[in-house]
Amino acid sequence: MLVATVFLSLVSLSFAIPSSNFTSTKRSVSGPAIATDFPDPSLLWVPQENSWFAFGTTGNGKHVQMASSPDFKTWTYENTDPLPTVANWVASSANVWAPMVVQLDDGSFVMYYSATAASNTAAHCIGAATSTNVRGPYTPVQSTIACPISQGGAIDPAGHHHPDGSLYVVYKIDGNSLGHGGSCNNGVKPIVSTPIMLQKVAANGYTPIGSPVQILDRDDGDGPLVEAPSLVHVGSTFFLFFSSGCYSDTSYDLSYATASVVTGPYTKARAPNAPLLVTGTDGLRAPGSACVTRDGSKIAFHAFIGSDIGTGRAMWTGVPTFNGNIVTVK
């Protein structure tokens, strides 16, 4: 069993989820919290367990990696696979990416994940799995939430609890998988769209309601793509965190956009307020693919363990600060 310990001595933390609105001028970016390869981490606080949970992309022989922490400081890597089986639409080489778990009002859990599509192994689609226990096992739903194969597929799902009680899933259409080469296969013209989509779902957490809505896309300032959305509501503002650049080099970063309603329009934050994290921040290399907790109190993201992606991407943590529509992670 791997235990990775970090100390956030400069930040005041509590075992309960704290208030969304707070300020801090002290450093909070710490880690690696999980020092082995644990890409695309997501976070969840589970009151019944009095513990934090993190879920990561396929690794160590598991479809989904999982770790837990009672205090957001000491993380224990758990050797079980919470998603031991995948849906029948998934190819045999599942390549489960960016799993994210939400807890429903009835106490049960839904895991969103993307995996290789059996119908076209060049593309990923997005599905869900359910469990009564945060540790699983999660039972896959035998239908997809999003599977736009002709547009390159879909990846990076994340759940969102709207203030009105409804549920949404945000995700990326993986357009750069159809690109023409260069950085992340989308650095050569014509550049392909990589939109972030918003899909409303039923109370079960996975049945789509209506059609998805595009809420963001790349522009010339983003490099080849935008991806890894994480959507939270703090105060009167919706904050859509996302990464741009290319995950496999040091252009990767963490940024955000804001809107007054969940469907947008979203306005990207610009310098000096964004990007939030870039290569060099706190000594990080290619920080991104972040998850912000439902109330905005915590953040997890990955960054290179060593000098290149071949050494893996570890999980780091931090504490966001919200001031109106401005975010900092110090």
UniProtKB/TrEMBL annotation:
Keywords tagged on the record: Glycosidase, Hydrolase, Signal
GO function term, MF aspect, one: hydrolase activity, hydrolyzing O-glycosyl compounds
Keyword rRNA processing: no
GO biological process: carbohydrate metabolic process
Coiled-coil ranges from the UniProt annotation: none
PANTHER family linked: BETA-XYLOSIDASE, ENDO-ARABINASE
Similarity remark: Belongs to the glycosyl hydrolase 43 family.
Protein name listed in UniProt: Arabinan endo-1,5-alpha-L-arabinosidase
Taxonomic classification: Eukaryota, Fungi, Dikarya, Basidiomycota, Agaricomycotina
